[in-house]
Amino acid sequence: MEYVSTRGSAPALDFEGATLAGLASDGGLYVPREWPRFTEAEIAGLAGLPYAELAARIMQPFVGDSLTPERLRELTAKAYARFAHKAVTPLKQLDEQQWLLELFHGPTLAFKDVALQLLGLLFEEFLSRGGDPLTIVGATSGDTGSAAIDAVAGRARVDIFMLHPKGRVSDVQRRQMTTVLSPNVHNIAIEGSSFDDAQAIVKRMFGDTAMTGRFAIGAVNSINWARLMAQVVYYFAAALQLGAPHRKVAFAVPTGNFGDVFAGYVAAQMGLPIERLIVATNVNDILHRALSTGDYSAGTVTPTAAPSMDIQVSSNFERLLFDVGGRDGKALAAQMTGFEATRAMQLTNAQREGAARLFTSARADPDQMAQAIRWAFDASGELLDPHTAIGLHAARTAGIDPAVPVVTLATAHPAKFRDAVERATGHRPILPARLGDLFEREERLVDLPGDYDAIAAYVAAHAVPRG
Ligand SMILES: N[C@@H](CCOP(=O)(O)O)C(=O)O
């Protein structure tokens, strides 16, 4: 399997190369040259497999020759052994039509663990073959940070520098990152910034030849293809339980960087019968505006009770625009460069029509989010986190045929956002025992200004150079 850049001029890479590179050298994102496709009979044959085995079968075509099927199976078994639920991503019924896919049973209580537990092992595997030590630079609005840190803390030949916007993640999210004291973990709180600022700094570092010449910069954000590949699996897992390939299923996905919902798009390209992908945003609604009107223009980021979605520049949207816009890398490079200069862009007709074939979108304000938390609690006794509640609001208002099951991706454990859940329901979710002493642990982080040079200098002073 070969990977090509959405901006058309970076060299094509194999899976190992794309995983270690993260972002393409032309600023684009890597995507498979073509989508592998399963027949209906092949999809039916996946029903009932244990999650780790299902994961290995679905990912093998993407991995190609970079790992043998046996080695991939060993890695998926190891990655998913750390989940607190035997099903890894259990499915729960809320009412006749609505379902929840619980993606928060990993070590850091968010869907990011599903991909990052595997990515940590992939880095270890590929780095053991030689090459330069990896300097991971990531940005987080709360969940990616802790999941990535958990996945690579203490591993040889990797350092991780995780940037978060100071004061804009929940206290649980911050402590999950800053209480990991391994010497290869470096937490940076950026003053006066949003996630978008942090993500822009990360992307700039990939294009900074002074940095990339000295350090092998790597990515753990969903700009890294391997993240999305691992997330494709749970769409299959849920749909197979609900009757696929003989029955269509719709998915509602709380969305910030568009990675999780793009994984659903990939599942559909592979042959999974998906009725609709419902993109759910909070008031930071660039994706809802883009999908409903074609206007992809970034406003300022409004802090909300669903901080992981407080994003206005959704990196993975570029992958969708590339695929539905005819895979014309040169044209997309010009379009994205224009967006980076003006922070505004109009989708082409081909992009709008291509997206509309599968995607619907909705936006939830804080009241609608709180109502969805209350509805789920009254309907089934489930406490939802604010992000999941935004997904559920979109699921219930999307007008999906009542015969089609709608699965909302439950992206985080409610205890990560205890205050918001308690405000909505009067019930305070309890942190699972494995995080029980989080508030007694020592924290380590540095505060830096939102200035590229200051952050690059910090990374350069603490990372291990090539060679
Ligand atoms: N929602 C994320 C933001 C980063 O997104 P990613 O999926 O590209 O890593 C977070 O919680 O950090």
From TrEMBL:
Signal peptide: none annotated. One of its GO terms (molecular function) is pyridoxal phosphate binding. It comes from Novosphingobium kunmingense. Residues 89-347 form the Tryptophan synthase beta chain-like PALP domain. The modification N6-(pyridoxal phosphate)lysine is found at residue 112. It is an enzyme of class 4 (lyase). InterPro entries: Ser/Thr_deHydtase_PyrdxlP-BS (IPR000634), Thr_synth_N (IPR029144), Thr_synth_N_sf (IPR037158), Thr_synthase-like (IPR004450), Threonine_Synthase (IPR051166), TrpB-like_PALP (IPR001926), TrpB-like_PALP_sf (IPR036052). It catalyses: O-phospho-L-homoserine + H2O = L-threonine + phosphate. SUPFAM superfamilies: Tryptophan synthase beta subunit-like PLP-dependent enzymes. This is Threonine synthase. The keyword Transmembrane helix does not apply. One of its GO terms (biological process) is threonine biosynthetic process. CDD domains: Thr-synth_2. Its EC number is 4.2.3.1. Keywords: Amino-acid biosynthesis, Lyase, Pyridoxal phosphate, Threonine biosynthesis. The keyword Amino-acid biosynthesis applies. Pathway: Amino-acid biosynthesis; L-threonine biosynthesis; L-threonine from L-aspartate: step 5/5. Pfam families: PALP, THR4_C, Thr_synth_N. Residues 2-80 form the Threonine synthase N-terminal domain. NCBIfam families: thrC. Belongs to the threonine synthase family. Its cofactor is pyridoxal 5'-phosphate.
